[in-house]
Amino acid sequence: MTNKDDNYESFNIDDFYKKYLNGPQLFKKREALEPSFVPHELPHRDKEIEQIASRTACALRGDVPSHFLIYGKTGTGKTATVRFVSEKLAQYSEKIKPWWIYINCSIVSTPYRILAHIYNTIVGSEQIPPTGLPKDVIFKKLLGLLDYKIKNSLCFLVLDEIDLITDTKQGNEILYDLTRLNENLDNCRTCLIGISNKLKFKENLDPRVVSSLGNEHITFSGYNAKELGDILESRAKIAFQEGVINEGVIRLCAALAAEEHGDARKALQLLRKAGEIAERSHNKYVSNEHVRKAQEELERDHIIDYIKGMPLQAQLVLTSIYLISKFPKERIIVSGDIYEVHKELANLIPGVSTLTRRRISDYINELHSAEIITAEKKSLGYYGRTKVIKLNIDKKLLETIFMEVNKIKDLLNYKPILIQKNKVRISDSTFRRLG
Ligand SMILES: Nc1ncnc2c1ncn2[C@@H]1O[C@H](COP(=O)(O)OP(=O)(O)O)[C@@H](O)[C@H]1O
Ligand SMILES: [Mg+2]
């Protein structure tokens, strides 16, 4: 038995739960901090609420609003505001309430699944299977259903995170089809609302789609620290017991999230995580220290998700950097090294091709923008002007992440040729170093 085993204390789940139940209760309604929660008020979104309400108000008189687009970075309240206005509109629709169908393109992303999702939402059950039917068959079925089930009423189709489908031909086609639904319907009418996180997404859009979606759009700007503070305060009142959150904690969460383009989701996440950390450590109040810990944990989670979600080639570029920084001490890493090591790794995995120096350089820039590495242009005598690369995250953390990526985990002990002392690489061949 090793020392580690001797010292190991087994986890007692009964004690854990008892302690938990006897510990202080910080939350009153935890779900009020979830992104899906629709609050009754949306501070600092009056202008945006007014714009969306004005565009959709004609629905109250039985008219059909034109399609429109909403832009703004993540966490600026786009989804919450649309849901808020839809609920208000329903409240004021005396006779027939319009239908609202939400399609989150990060989850439902193919034309087939978008059509199936709309169909299934209207019928209220999974009638169209996840795959199998030809697209035009579903399209016809959908037209029939809209006319038969929604009849003379209006159906809003909200395509949230629309930027995720506009870079493909298929995506453009389905958008075109959806903007033209009304021409093929006898009774029902539809209004398309596209929500995008990226301002530039229109560049990828088919001009015909742009013209039917309208050239104007509603823009949501990021919140400043003061505005985030107000949002957090109104949410904290619902989510936490009285006295658990002080003003300093709110201000700190708001300031940290304001640094990140004024993202309310981030601010709420921080507050929730800080509350959970305080609860875990049996504190009665949330402190600034808890917020800072929460920030660290969120950054860590974010990096883990980001790296796991990268394409394999980007992961291989990062693995190359990891392998070079792992072995020798104080070695300067230049992009040429990464190119060489990537080539060796690519040759070890069936079906993976080597990349040009140009592509490697693109991946290096992406990793730099994601702050996983730093890549600085420097003048080094021997190499001329080149990029000097450093790993920006903990090697142990990276190792833990890559251990869970199947194609990468076996490469973690690979020793690149430029590090193997007894081999040299000249041009494209490897030779054993003499004596
Ligand atoms: N003005 C606001 N008042 C209260 N909560 C807000 C406000 N803006 C955003 N939120 C909250 O922040 C989170 C992110 O908002 P969301 O609408 O999902 O952003 P987006 O769709 O722009 O990414 C949600 O929990 C939402 O309820
Ligand atoms: Mg959203």
Which descriptors apply to this entry?
435 residues, alpha/beta, Helicase, Ruva Protein, domain 3, 5-stranded parallel β-sheet, 3-stranded antiparallel β-sheet, 10 strands, binds adenosine-5'-diphosphate, binds magnesium ion
What is the percent of helical residues? 40-55%
Helix-strand topology string: HHHEHEHHEHEHEHHHHHEHHEEHHEE
* SSE class: alpha/beta
Strand content: 5-15%
CATH-level-4 superfamily name of the largest domain: P-loop containing nucleotide triphosphate hydrolases
Q: What is the CATH topology descriptor of the largest domain?
A: Rossmann fold
Rounded mean pLDDT is 90
Bound molecules: adenosine-5'-diphosphate, magnesium ion
Largest sheet: 5 strands, parallel
The level 1 CATH classification of the largest domain is Alpha Beta
The shape is globular
DSSP summary, beta strand count: 10
How many structural domains does the protein architecture include? 3
Strand order in space, largest sheet: 2-3-4-1-5
